[in-house]
Amino acid sequence: MKPQTSFWLTLPNPKLINKLAPELIAALAAASVYCAMYAFRKPFTMLTFEHVNFLGVGYKIWLITAQLLGYALSKTIGIRVISEMKANSRMGILVSLIGVAWFSLFLFAILPPPWTILCMFMNGIPLGLIWGIVFSYLEGRTTTDLLAAILASSFIFSSGFVKSIGGLLLQSGSASMDAIYDRCPFCIATNHNDVGLE
Predict the structure, then answer these.
(1) CB under 8 Å to 72, separation ≥6 — which residues?
(2) Which residues are 2's β-sheet partners?
(3) What is the full DSSP assignment across 137-155?
(4) Over the stretch 116-168, which tens digit does the pLDDT of each residue have?
(5) Using CA atoms, how far apart are residues 147 and 139, in angstroms rounded to an integer?
(6) Cα angle vertex 45, ends 39, 46, to 5°?
(7) 37 phi and psi, to 5 degrees?
(8) I want to staple 70 with a disulfide (CB 3.0 to 4.6 A). Which of 17, 125, 171, 186 is the partner?
(9) CA dist list (Å): 137 to 15, 25, 42, 159
(10) Around Cβ 27, how many Cβ atoms within 10 Å?
(11) Which residues make Cβ contacts (< 8 Å) with residue 53, sequence separation at least 6?
């Protein structure tokens, strides 16, 4: 007859669990924050803008390029800003940056083309700084490499997740350019030919 082994001996070391649990919670929180940031960055790419061109180039290309240029510029800004940021000001700056990104999307909804290109450039600048702020909460730990890997993996999930939500809203009719303009009392009707749009 085999000796009975205590059930508790088969569980992982409690000290190891106590050590890793806060680290994994921190990684999950960081990945969740970064995923939420993507809701301000990616869903607009579900719109096709197939009948809109500006200076002979598809309007969606203009919007994505403008946002990417803003994002790239913010990386240069972040080299100094993030490195000099004090720990007690991170949360306020993080919320402020998301607020600026939200406001640029609000302007995107109410302004006529081609001004929305500038809105997407303005949207990219604050969002490009989010990674540095979120990562600053994780660096300096003994498990920073593991936490950074979990945070980086959120790229894969976040983009697809928020684009899927955007696609569902489009399919339900809750979000379309016509619906946005119909519901927005601030929208300015323009003749597309006057601004170089086709």
Answers:
(1) 124, 128
(2) none
(3) TTTTSTTHHHHHHHHHHHH
(4) 889 999 998 988 888 888 888 777 777 777 777 777 777 777 777 777 777 77
(5) 9
(6) 95
(7) -60, -35
(8) 125
(9) 23, 12, 24, 22
(10) 23
(11) 59, 197, 198
Residue 14's H or E segment, with its range, is: helix 14-38
Q: Which tens digits make up the pLDDT trace of 22-46?
A: 778 888 888 888 888 877 777 676 6
Predicted local distance difference test score (pLDDT) of residue 183: 43
CA distance 140 to 108: 39
**Structure-block tokens of residue 198:** 């086709």
CB atoms within 10 A of CB 192: 15
Residue whose pair of structure tokens reads 């170089």 in the numeric block = 196
User: Which are the contacts of 10, defined by CB distance < 8 A and separation ≥ 6?
Assistant: none
* pTM: predicted TM-score of the whole model, two decimal places: 0.70
Residue carrying the six token digits 């600053």: 136
Angle (CA) 133 137 101, round 5°: 25
* Coil, helix or strand at residue 2: coil
Q: Rounded to 10 degrees, what is the CA torsion of 136, 138, 140, 142?
A: -170
